[in-house]
């Protein structure tokens, strides 16, 4: 799939942008803080309804945006997407909220339209599929477990509408269950009826959790077939990379969603006392992790910087390939300042991937010097400066 046109209005440092895109490689280059990353961010947001940066949605709205008479400022993102099944028009408005006195608050709201019809944010996810590569991907390997869960969740959410909905439901239930557990821990609620009161929440949590587990295990199984050999090629080593799903409880993993849900339910019953004592849900997909091993060595803990970088790149390339295999068309690749970070071998791998036919890629760089003349001759180059994009 590819994005043929992107419109931005009052998004980050763009007042207005109308950008036609080719289905192949586009290089956005220009000085720091010009607005290159913001273009990738807008596409990522349209695909996932999440920002690439750790910031509130309201920060997407251009600081100097005025809004219109009586309407608070808003950022608008609109993409025309070309898919095998036909064209699609995706639009998101992020609007700042005001209080009774008309003063801007920290809150914002999201309005989504798919083919001009109002839709829920959750329905937008996966209409456009993207994979973002950034130098910060290293946290997938050496960072906290939530980064690795996020990696699986973003990949699966873009592939499976049921996964997004189940994940949202699971998170809501876990939150409500946690507030009950906290109330018992703090003796704000009588302890006699713990089992009865948890019965409904456990049923909902484990049904959703079983599905999330089943889908994550299936994805990890498929990823292994892709990422293992990719890592070998990228690192030039002989041993493949093994990705293991590490659940928060002992699991017979060769079971379907129902079987996994039953195991989770049994685990929760056994953990009841601990959960009440700690005031939180201790088991389930929200506590799981991924482990990366080569020759039996845990690379998250003991890998060299170079090995960890190779794992991160293999994971991202594997994600893109998984999406291509499952969905039947390639996701749009977004490479944010990526190539300058890579050594020659890793760079060559990435370039090989983005040069495939039917692969749309947008990449950013500050310095053209890192690209060969032949590469530059065969791509579209756009110069970005102070929130404007110029052909070059
Ligand atoms: N809501 C906003 N309104 C206006 N400007 C913003 C907003 N949010 C971020 N900016 C600014 O937009 C500019 C563009 O940032 P962006 O990250 O897109 O630049 P970049 O070209 O990718 O830079 P680099 O090469 O340094 O990564 C930055 O100066 C940033 O401070």
UniProtKB/TrEMBL annotation:
Cross-referenced PROSITE patterns: RECF_1 (PS00617)
InterPro entries attached to this UniProt entry: DNA-binding_RecF, DNA-binding_RecF_CS, P-loop_NTPase, RecF/RecN/SMC_N, RecF_2
Domain of life of the organism encoding this protein: Bacteria
A GO biological process held by the record: SOS response
GO molecular function: ATP binding; single-stranded DNA binding
Family matches, as Pfam families: SMC_N (PF02463)
Any one annotated GO CC term: cytoplasm
Chain sites annotated for binding ATP: 30-37
Domain RecF/RecN/SMC N-terminal: start-end pairs: 3-365
Function according to Swiss-Prot or TrEMBL: The RecF protein is involved in DNA metabolism; it is required for DNA replication and normal SOS inducibility. RecF binds preferentially to single-stranded, linear DNA. It also seems to bind ATP.
Family, similarity comment: Belongs to the RecF family.
Protein name: DNA replication and repair protein RecF
Provenance organism: Candidatus Viridilinea mediisalina
Gene this protein is translated from: recF
């Amino acid at each position: 799939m590819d994005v043929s046109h992107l419109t931005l209005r009052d998004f980050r440092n763009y007042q207005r942008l109308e950008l036609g895109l080719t289905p192949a490689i586009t290089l956005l280059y220009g000085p720091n803080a010009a607005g290159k990353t913001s273009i990738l961010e807008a596409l990522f947001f349209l695909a996932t309804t999440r920002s690439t940066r750790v910031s509130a949605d309201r920060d997407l709205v251009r600081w100097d945006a005025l809004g219109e008479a009586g309407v608070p400022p808003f950022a608008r993102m609109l993409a025309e997407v070309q898919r095998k099944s036909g064209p699609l028009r995706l639009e998101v408005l992020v609007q700042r909220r005001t209080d009774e006195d008309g003063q801007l608050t920290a809150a914002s709201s999201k309005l989504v339209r798919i083919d001009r019809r109002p839709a829920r944010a959750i329905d937008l996810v996966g209409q456009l599929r993207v994979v973002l590569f950034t130098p910060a991907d290293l946290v997938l390997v050496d960072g906290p477990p939530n980064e690795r869960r996020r990696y699986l969740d973003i990949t699966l959410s873009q592939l499976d509408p049921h996964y997004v909905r189940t994940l949202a439901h699971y998170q809501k239930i876990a939150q409500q269950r946690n507030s009950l557990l906290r109330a018992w821990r703090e003796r704000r609620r009588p302890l006699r009826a713990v089992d009865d009161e948890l019965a409904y929440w456990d049923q909902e949590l484990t049904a959703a959790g079983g599905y999330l587990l089943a889908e994550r295990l299936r994805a990890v199984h498929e990823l292994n077939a892709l990422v293992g050999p990719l890592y070998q090629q990228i690192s030039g080593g002989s041993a493949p990379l093994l990705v293991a799903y590490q659940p928060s409880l002992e699991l017979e993993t060769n079971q379907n969603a129902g079987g996994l849900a039953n195991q989770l339910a049994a685990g929760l019953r056994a953990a009841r006392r601990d959960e009440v004592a700690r005031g939180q849900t201790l088991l389930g997909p929200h506590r799981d992790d991924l482990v990366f091993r080569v020759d039996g060595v845990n690379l998250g803990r003991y890998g060299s910087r170079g090995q960890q970088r190779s794992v991160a790149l293999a994971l991202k390339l594997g994600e893109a390939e998984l999406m291509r295999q499952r969905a039947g068309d390639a996701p749009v690749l977004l490479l944010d300042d990526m190539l300058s970070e890579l050594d020659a071998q890793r760079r060559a791998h990435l370039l090989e991937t983005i040069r495939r036919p039917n692969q749309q890629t947008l990449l950013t760089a500050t310095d053209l010097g890192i690209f060969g003349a032949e590469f530059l001759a065969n791509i579209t180059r756009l110069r970005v400066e102070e929130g404007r994009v110029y052909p070059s």
